[in-house]
Design a protein that fits this description.
Helices cover about 60% and strands about 5% of the residues. By secondary structure, the chain is mainly alpha-helical. The longest helix is centred in the first third of the chain and has 16 residues. It is elongated, with a radius of gyration of 23 Å.
């Protein structure tokens, strides 16, 4: 079982203060279209502006999707309003951040990369847009391009440690493990309880031949999250490859208890135990 790093696409909470959902039938007038979620019909109404723009309405639908539901109809409605905004004279570049936001939740990475090649990204000052573009490149095997956008996200929002973590992941996946370790060091100095950073730094250390440092990192990751499958698998592999089969079996048995249906875990156990 090879060691592995990890990559995540978190649920991002973005707050737009000017829009809230309304159920049809409330006293406030419905002015922004209807979206169906199970048996309820929703619309969006502005709390500040009685006549929000098409782009603002699109942002509202995306915010409601992110914070209240995972129904794809809300993304579809956001895209409808984005197209209306374009027909009304808004440029694709001016709407790029909202388009990227919508496509990100659909995992439509091809469209994200397409718009990234069409607009002047230096004009985009939203760090989450650069983060999402970075994720699109990273998820499609282009870590070098991802690093550019993760770096920009870090520059725009240095307090957001998730961006720093993904920058390190991109550096590792591009093969620059030494720089990745430096970035993980920086991250862990800011937050010593960032569990995934220990696992991923351990992976980079192991690739660089620092077995002791890697083992320490995997153990620190597990101390923070005992059921972390990546860290358990990495530590099991490290033990097996350093002739500590009994310790490796303990890690694999924990993995099997967490996910008994995973054939890789049972196969690895058979390899360790000699069949």
């Amino acid at each position: 079982m090879p060691v592995s790093g990890s990559s995540d696409i978190p649920h991002v909470r973005i707050t737009d203060h000017f829009i809230r959902p309304l159920r049809v039938g409330e006293d406030r007038a419905v002015t922004a279209g209807q979206v169906e979620e199970t048996t309820l019909t929703y619309s969006l109404a502005s709390l500040i502006d009685d006549d929000p723009s098409q782009a603002e309405i699109a942002e509202g639908f995306l915010t409601y999707y992110e914070e209240k539901t995972n129904q794809p109809g809300f993304i579809d409605s956001a895209k409808v309003y984005l197209r209306r905004a374009e027909r009304g004279g808004r440029s694709r570049e001016s709407l790029a951040s909202t388009w990227v936001r919508a496509w990100f939740w659909e995992q439509d990475y091809a469209s994200i990369k397409g718009i990234a090649n069409q607009v002047d990204l230096d004009l985009i000052e939203d760090p989450w847009t650069h983060y999402r573009i970075g994720e699109a490149y990273l998820s499609t095997g282009l870590p070098g391009d991802a690093i550019v956008h993760f770096s920009r996200a870090v520059q725009l929002a240095p307090e957001q440690l998730r961006f720093l973590h993904k920058l390190a992941v991109g550096q590792s996946e591009s093969g620059d493990h030494a720089t990745a370790v430096e970035t993980y060091n920086r991250l862990l100095a800011l937050n010593p309880e960032f569990e995934a950073a220990y696992n991923n730094r351990g992976f980079s250390r192991l690739v660089m031949g620092d077995v002791g440092g890697a083992e320490s990192d995997f153990k620190r990751s597990l101390a923070l999250y005992p059921d972390g499958e990546n860290s358990l698998a990495n530590l099991a592999s490290l033990y097996y490859n350093t002739n500590r089969a009994d310790s490796a079996l303990l890690m694999v048995d924990r993995l099997i208890r967490i996910d008994p249906s995973n054939p890789a875990y049972t196969e690895f156990r058979m390899i360790i135990s000699g069949g």
